[in-house]
Amino acid sequence: MSEIIRIIGIGFAGGMLALMLRKHRPEFALFIGLVTSAVILAGTVEWVSGIMTGLRQLIENCGVDTAYFSMIVKVVGTAYISQFAAEILRDSGENAVASKVEAAGKICILALTLPVLASFMELCIGVVNSV
Asked: TM spans, by residue (predicted)?
C-alpha cells in the first residue's frame, strides 16, 4: 500500500512541477513529464516481475503451451508501450501523431495474435468436420 502512495505522490509532484513550468518553459515541462513517467514505470518493475512469475506458474500448472504466454506478454507490452507513447505525444500537443502510434500498436497486436486466431479457426473447422 505504501508503494502505491509513493508512486501517486511522485505523479502529483511531477504533474504540479510540469504545470508550473508549462507557462514559461514548455520544453522543460515535457521533460519533467517524461522523467516523472519513467520514475513511475521503474517503480512498477517489481510488481510486473511478480505478475510475470504468477502467470508463468499458472500457465505451467494448466499445461498450456508456453508460446501463448510469450504472445500474451508481447501483446500486453505492446499495448502499454503504445499507450504510454501516445499519451506523451498528446501532452506535447501532437494529437495526430499520437493517434498514429495507437493505430500502429493495434496493428502490431493484431499481427501478434494472428497465429492464435489461425489455430482457433483450425480447431473450429476440425470440430465441424468431425460432426
From this structure: 6-21, 28-48
